[in-house]
Amino acid sequence: MVKKDFLKDLKTMNADVLCFQETKASAEDVKDVLQLIPGYYGFSNSSKARKGYSGTAIFSKEEPLNVTYDLGFEDHDMEGRVITAEFLTYFLVTVYTPNSGDGLKRLDYRETWDEAFREHIVSLKRRKPVIVCGDLNVAHKEIDIARPKENYNKSAGYTQREIDGFQKLLDEGFIDTFRHFKPTEVKYTYWNNLFNSRARNVGWRIDYFLVPENMVSKVKKADIYTEYMGSDHCPIALTVDI
């Protein structure tokens, strides 16, 4: 079901490209949304493992040259977590990185995912610049999480192994755009709904736009829109001349 406020917010944003994670939607569901916001080409990747789980989508005003799905590894391709759209001068990759789960029961798998995703991005980067957008399910530094000491190496999304996996991606020549422009600003993109965390701003910054170093000069703004409600995440945005 699509909420009216969601459609209103999409029209207000008027973005050239919209990336969604954890859509929990089928291809038909995405087509239905596109009918309500004309002017976009739509591409979706649904979970093959189970219905109504995970999933990603890209809506773009410009038709991509090519769109591919997943990472090319069966172990990582069952949950609809990656879409790669190729445009004339860049790739856009939207990603919903697996959560390590309660009790960190999926942390070992998460490490193998991070490696495979990094290989995918690096391979694309050899061809043309890559913009990575999505829920990477990790708070990179203490400034990115409201309660770092309480969560470090205990909670999914803030273990050293997850932090190291994200850092390895940055070490391949990628820039965290929000932190690049706002090195000391405390702002979050996710709040746990169970504990009224958003009202108290006890959050995590786990959603990112990453760009290669040679594209940073073209980035004009990187924003987090905490004013938009309706989800346990809020939208983030990138303004770039490409």
Write a brief structural summary.
With 242 residues, the chain is of the alpha+beta class. The protein has a single domain (62-240), classed as Endonuclease/exonuclease/phosphatase (Deoxyribonuclease I, Chain A), CATH 3.60.10.10. The chain has 7 helices and 13 strands.
Report on this structure.
This protein is α+β, with helices and mostly antiparallel strands. The protein has one domain (62-240): Deoxyribonuclease I, Chain A, CATH 3.60.10.10. The chain is 26% helix and 25% strand. The protein is built from 7 helices and 13 strands. The protein has helices spanning 4-13, 27-36, 107-125, 148-151, 160-171, 177-181, 197-200; strands at residues 17-21, 41-45, 56-60, 66-69, 82-86, 91-96, 130-135, 174-176, 190-191, 203-204, 207-212, 219-224, 236-240. A 6-stranded mixed β-sheet has the order 4-5-6-7-11-8. Strands 1-3-2 form a 3-stranded antiparallel β-sheet, covered by helices on one side. Helix 3 (107-125) runs parallel beside helix 5.
**What is the total number of structural domains?**
1
Q: What string, H for helix and E for strand, traces the elements in order?
A: HEHEEEEEHEHHEHEHEEEE
Q: Class by helix and strand content?
A: alpha+beta
At CATH level 3, the topology is Deoxyribonuclease I, Chain A
Any idea what the CATH superfamily is called?
Endonuclease/exonuclease/phosphatase
- Determine the fraction of residues in helical runs and give it as a percent range: 25-40%
Number of helices: 7
Question: Based on DSSP secondary structure assignment, what is the total number of beta strands?
Answer: 13
| Overall CATH architecture | 4-Layer Sandwich
Unreliably modeled segments: none
Highest-level CATH class: Alpha Beta
Task: Report the sheet with the most strands, covering strand number, pairing sense and barrel closure.
Answer: 6 strands, mixed
Shape: globular
User: What gap, in angstroms, lies between the N and C termini?
Assistant: 34 Å
Average of per-residue pLDDT values: 96
Strand order of the largest sheet: 4-5-6-7-11-8
Strand content: 15-25%
Rg calculated over all Cα atoms: 17 Å
What oligomeric state do these chains adopt?
A: single chain
